[in-house]
Amino acid sequence: MKRHYRFRAILFDLDGTLTDPFVGISRSVNYALTQIGHSPLGDEELRGWIGPSLHASFEQVLGDPRLAYQAVAHYRQRYWEIGMFENSVFPGIPELLYDLRAAGIRLFVATSKIRPPTERILAHFGLRTYFEAIAAVDPDDRDGNKAMVIASLLPRLGIDRGWAVMVGDTIYDISGARAHRMPCIAVTYGYGAYRDLYLAAPLALADSVTALRHLVLE
């Protein structure tokens, strides 16, 4: 008897959901800050940089849009050369993606990260083949957010839009999906604060890749 799955399409966030990017992002942020004469940030503060807009995060710390532009340029210089490879895939993710595809579930990436490193990271770790399409932010788009990223995938989803779910680790994933009346499963093994995720009322919370598997496959 054929199994019936809850979702026909799944949109995955990248950082904090498929991969753990902390080392590369944190080192690149502090490199950028020191290049413009700002003191480096501690690990706890840097955790909050995974998810929001990079430019907005620099502007919040520096208090000057012009300095934020300079910091983003320094960040990208290091991140594109070194930082994107200081990354790791969460254990169990490749196997989950393989099984989802084998079950006939359509897979997409929806990330607020800019497109070039997104493509390179997925290719580097052998994940690109699992995804039908990738929605990311163009390098010159400083205002790209998760709702806009998801919107770009809606024409591809077609009739499966009503059976789609967003999977991500921050409130930006939840609010972005909600803007399109799409449910979101929030993973708590990433970088969003548990309390914030809980209060944002996603469809479900998953504290591990195993728990996520139970929600989307079993």
Structural description of this entry:
- The chain is α/β, with parallel strands linked by helices.
- It has ten helices and eight strands.
- Strand 6, helix 8 (171-178) and strand 7 form a beta-alpha-beta unit.
- It starts with 8 loop residues before the first strand and ends with a helix.
- The mean pLDDT is 92.
Short description:
This protein has 218 residues and is of the alpha/beta class.
Task: Fill in the keyword field for this structure.
8 strands, about 220 residues, alpha/beta, about 15% strand, six-stranded parallel beta sheet
- The helical percent reads 40-55%
Number of strands: 8
User: Stretches where pLDDT falls below 50 for ≥5 residues?
Assistant: none
**What structural class do you assign from the helix and strand content?**
alpha/beta
Mean pLDDT: 92
Spell out the helices and strands N to C.
EEHHHHEHEHEHEHEHEH
Shape: globular
What's the gyration radius in Å? 17 Å
- Cα distance, first to last residue? 15 Å
Number of helices: 10
**Major sheet details:** 6 strands, parallel
Query: How do the strands line up in the largest sheet?
Result: 5-4-1-6-7-8
Portion of residues in beta strands equals 15-25%
Please outline the helices and strands.
Layout lengths: L8 E4 L6 E2 L1 H14 L7 H5 L6 H9 L2 H17 L6 E2 L3 H10 L3 E9 H10 L8 E5 L8 H12 L6 E5 L2 H8 L5 E4 L6 H6 L4 E3 L2 H8 L2
Parallel strand pairs: 1-4, 1-6, 4-5, 6-7, 7-8
Antiparallel strand pairs: 2-3
